[in-house]
Amino acid sequence: MDNVTETILLTSDTSSATGYSSTGWKTYLIAALPVIIYALHLRATRRRVVPKGVPWVGLRNEWFAKIRANMRELYHSKQNIEEGYQLYGKHGKPCITPNSTFEAEVVLPPSYMGWLVAQPDSVLSIYEVLINDVEFTYTSPRSWQFHRPFHVEALNKMNLNLMTGVMIDEMSECLDDWFGAVPGKWERVSVQASMRVILTCITNRVFVGKEIAHDEKYFHYSSHYVHQIGNCAAMISHLIPAMLKPILAPLAALPVRYYDYHCSRYLVPLIQKHLDDATAAKDSHHEERNPDMLQLMARFAAKSHDPLDHDPRSLCARILALNFVGIHTSSAAAMGAIIDILCAGPDVFAKLRHEAATVLRDAGGVWNKAAVNRLVLMDSTLRESLRFSAFKARGVERKIVQKGGVMLPDGTLLPEGTKVGMPTTEIHMDPDFYDDPRTFRYDRFVGKAEVGMVNTTDTFLAFGHGKHACPGRFFSTHELKLFFAHIVLNYDFKFFDERPKSKYLSDFCVWEDHVYFETCRRERSAHLDLEASS
Ligand code: HEM
């Protein structure tokens, strides 16, 4: 017997004598492992709260019914929301809709809207929803580390009147590329690709200025950033168990962090320059009259005492996050609008063209904010499209952050961490709120000043509602009205005989395939025809 074997035998003998055999210890550990993992999982998923006493929809009579309903949600979300609305929402009651992220959401009835929007941020938080949905902790940690969200304030300070010329320039250039520049030549164009690229170009131009916006590599990195952030967030929230997130999510977020890094190489030096200029201008009281978003943000930053606001990398992350929220939403709105207009047919199109031509002729052939504001039919058409073709079925989503939870008007207690929201699409299609809701009526809102495209109401939720209603809606409304006016003036179209099909992925509405339309550049803008004939 050698020394080592002897030692092992001795050790083993000793442990048997004391009642602790190493095999027994390992067995205990192996048996306890699932419990330890489960305890860690519970701790890591403590935010996944499922309130008691609220009925579920989408359940079937089967084993593990809730887990399976959550897993089915990716393709059954709209059905669940419809069912919940008919069974509960219409009767003033909340219900739980499953979610493929396993974070079930309490959908509230429309009658609770006043209560929902009256809650302070210390009770219901939109930020927790945004940070969670986009997995900002991993995909873009810097973009939500700030004390004052002045990127949102900068959005509201944007001078849309002075920006109009820049926007028209950018639109014309992009439309030449995508819709065709040769009069009389018909082109076949993808709705999804064209709207995504054109809206990205306009947003980039207005946000970061011409030089960087027109840099092909910046366009590549920034548009990939916008698309990857959604993919990475979906992968993190759907595929990575919460307890493994700290280890695996940073890896899953690498693609978006790569594009973020490349965008920052363009933006950080420019932001530093704007910060220096803004600091100098603060002392000399001289500021450029037509600043882009980055310049506006630098002005706010220059006046701030928070060191984080002077970090160009932080400002860069914030503008990229704005790009993400702004580009997806406005391109989805533009896709819905062009499809709705081409389905509405030649009469509606002729009326929109006539209005745009009259307004532009009366404005002397140059668009400005006042002229865009006079596009009443276009405003109603685009608002109707946001109602009719809403691209997210649940909206006004908030997370309960108040310790101890919150009591709903019917006395139900929802615990801290519960996500709540409104059934946007069902409210938009409810005959109690809209006459003949399943018909696209382009002129539905004409003559009702209180329901212009930017106005949110209890029953028009495309931009959310309440104090957190989309701050980008003034910019987007102006941009989309200008864009569609420019299109109807300068292009002819073939109309759709049949509406393209859409489907839901979770609660997001997407077009089933690539949808194409045919368009042809006119000899000249229709307002010049009007001028010639009058
Ligand atoms: C047609 C285009 C757009 C649509 C339909 C849209 C829709 C929305 C919706 C539904 C919300 C949630 C509001 C709530 O829950 O009450 C929201 C929030 C927000 N949107 Fe938009 N949006 C659009 C364009 C933009 C643009 C262009 C920007 C910026 C460039 C932007 C920036 C934001 C921000 C920062 C928030 C969060 C507001 C907050 O936290 O208080 N949006 N948007």
Automatic annotation (TrEMBL):
Q: Which Pfam families match?
A: p450
User: Which keywords accompany this UniProt record?
Assistant: Heme, Iron, Metal-binding, Monooxygenase, Oxidoreductase
Needed cofactors: heme
Give the similarity note.
Answer: Belongs to the cytochrome P450 family.
| Protein's UniProt name | Cytochrome P450
